[in-house]
């Protein structure tokens, strides 16, 4: 089905995101240009069936169904080395849609946080979103000669690289306490309007 069927082309002046309309997998990267050993934290706020589990270093690496066969969110692995680098997660939108009880209001909301472990950076950490229509997500570290900080999608029909970038945030949080670090942004994905928005509130 075409986006124009919804009356949501660019000409309408709406905030419709083609990437949200077409993509079944959304990848988010936390990127920094100084500092060392930044550790991301990510969790679902909505749907509430998935809330309360945090992915990232020292937390869990994956959020799945009870049997472990359906992946809802996955972490790309720890980057303890780069002073200019990234860590990432992806979520499977189609899998989330199959949750028992559904997705109330067709809204997915994520809490995106992070903390420094080795050396605090002075420059902003920036989160960007990339969408994929189809394909299979694999860990970079499972691919020979790839450093291994995020994901590779093979077999996708269309990709939407860095289609939505959040405002950069200078992160002052440090250490691995019980806290999940400093919030960089919330991500609100509206599957009715096909939009993705960042929110600092």
What can you see in these coordinates?
It is built from 2 helices and 13 strands, in the order αββββββαβββββββ. The chain has helices at 18-22, 93-97; strands at residues 25-32, 36-46, 54-55, 62-64, 71-75, 85-92, 107-119, 126-133, 136-139, 151-154, 158-165, 182-190, 195-199. Strand 2 (36-46) and strand 3 (54-55) form a beta hairpin. The chain is mostly beta strands. Mean pLDDT is 91; it is low at 4-14.
One letter per element, helices H and strands E, the order comes to HEEEEEEHEEEEEEE
Instruction: Give the strand order, joined by hyphens, for the main sheet.
Output: 4-5-6-1-8-11
Q: Which blocks of ≥5 consecutive residues have pLDDT under 50?
A: 4-14
Radius of gyration: 17 Å
Q: Kindly state the percentage of residues in helix.
A: under 10%
User: Helical region count?
Assistant: 2
Beta strand count:
13
For this structure, the quaternary state is: single chain
Per-chain topology:
Layout: H1 18-22, E1 25-32, E2 36-46, E3 54-55, E4 62-64, E5 71-75, E6 85-92, H2 93-97, E7 107-119, E8 126-133, E9 136-139, E10 151-154, E11 158-165, E12 182-190, E13 195-199
Antiparallel strand pairs: 1-6, 1-8, 2-3, 2-7, 4-5, 5-6, 7-12, 8-11, 9-10, 12-13
Which terms would index this structure?
single chain; 201 residues; mainly beta; 6-stranded antiparallel beta sheet; 13 strands
Task: Please give a quick description of this structure.
With 201 residues, this protein is mostly beta strands. The chain has 2 helices and 13 strands.
């Amino acid at each position: 089905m075409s986006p124009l069927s919804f009356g949501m082309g660019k000409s309408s002046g709406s905030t419709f995101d083609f990437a949200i309309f077409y993509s079944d997998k959304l990848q988010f990267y936390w990127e920094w240009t100084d500092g060392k050993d930044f550790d991301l934290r990510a969790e679902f706020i909505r749907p509430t069936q998935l809330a309360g589990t945090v992915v990232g270093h020292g937390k869990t690496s994956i959020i799945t169904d009870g049997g472990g066969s359906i992946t809802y969110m996955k972490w790309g692995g720890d980057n303890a080395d780069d002073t200019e680098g990234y860590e990432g997660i992806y979520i499977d939108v189609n899998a989330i849609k199959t949750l028992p009880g559904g997705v109330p209001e067709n809204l997915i909301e994520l809490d995106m946080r992070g903390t420094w472990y080795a050396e605090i950076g002075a420059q902003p950490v920036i989160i960007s979103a990339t969408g994929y229509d189809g394909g299979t997500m694999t860990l970079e570290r499972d691919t020979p000669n790839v450093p291994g900080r995020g994901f590779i999608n093979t077999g996708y029909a269309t990709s939407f690289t860095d289609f939505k970038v959040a405002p950069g945030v200078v992160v002052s949080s440090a250490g691995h306490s019980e806290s999940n670090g400093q919030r960089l942004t919330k991500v609100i994905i509206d599957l009715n309007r096909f939009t993705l928005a960042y929110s600092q509130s």
